[in-house]
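thought: fold this chain, then report.
action: predict
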Amino acid sequence: MIECSFLLKSLEPLRSVLRAIIKQGGKPYLVGGIVRDLVLGLQVKDLDIEVHGITLEDLEACLKQFGPVKLVGKSFGVLRLHHLDVDWSLPRKDSKGRKPTVEIDPNMTIEDACRRRDLRMNAMVIDIAQILEGTCEIIDIFHGLQDIKEQKLRAVDKALFLDDPLRFFRVMQFIGRFEMLPDDELNYMCSKMDVVVAKERIYEEVKKLLLKSKRPSLGFRWLLNICRLKDIFPQLHALVGVQQRSDYHPEGDVFEHTMQALDAAAQFQEYANEEEKFLIMLGVLCHDLGKPISTDEKLSAVGHEKEGIPLCKQFLKIFTDDTFLIPAVCKLVKYHLRPPQLFEQKSGVKAYKRLAVKLAPQVSIRQLAIVTLCDIQGRNPQGSLPLTNKYLGEFNQFLEIADKAKVTHGPEEPVLLGRHLMDVVEPGPKMGELLKNN
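observation:
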């Protein structure tokens, strides 16, 4: 099932470290998501190695033979050797509550260590000593392989799962990332469990959902299905049942449209980096939050982009206080109708230049155009998948005009700057007026 040669190659830079740990009496295991991803045939970047049988101090001493050791996370039994992208941990027990205390237990059995994992597919391990000897047998005490085959998410231990409310949000992002659905028992637990979690931890799970999923909508649809969307993300729940004009939106209500548009954003291939992708996906997720307020009896939603700005802020504040991200997403919401308006009106380059100035410095015309493209692609009346192969021609034509105006990635550099006027005008309102009219 797993190529042993691949694992041996991945562990080759660690061979000396692993031998030192084993000589000290430690038993290192590959654990958690790496084993799951190997089974699924996904790319593996980071290694998680859990060491049994030695103390944290002994593990640290072993690692220090090979370079500086980072102590961040030491209280959780996690160490990092500076030149290796590996988390070295010891088995631990976490107490209940929002701020759990941690008890490291080097002598915990592998079965008990696996039992403390959230889901069965994450509770598989591989004995590294066996890998080094050329054997790659998965230790699968709780039948994670079966769950992966059946595309089901199941909790390892009900009581332990309920002890940690973060696991609720992990289920949400796993649904989107792996397109696997919880079984009835897990659905029931999640529909009733406490979900009070620090916003920083929710942020990380939302980010994983948006960045690592082809269909992140599945996570939000699941929240709706188990009746948790309203108390967790009320701004998204308000979109449910808000009808739209069928000639513009044949796909259904605003929630359905938003979910399709979100998946279109997830499948867009030309992001500059993950930061840009995350920004744009949040813009798409928030772009119609104002429609529940602005939609009238004729299903017209004039002004919904402006009405959505305070709701956008409320939504983002649930999981972040980022002083760049929040205003950037709000600008995408505020101006998301401008690209089709400029395109349909055959506006000249001056209009594009004015828009670029309004968007700066947080976002660019290109980023706004991606939000608009995903908005338009989220209108499939034949199912829940977005129309990702349509409207690309119009998108490229719009960007061609922005390129001609030289404002695709930001406003033009002004010809006249304040320093050019220092000899003739003192800094102040008069200089500002001259620069404004430049």
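thought: worth noting. The mean pLDDT is 93.
final: tokens above.
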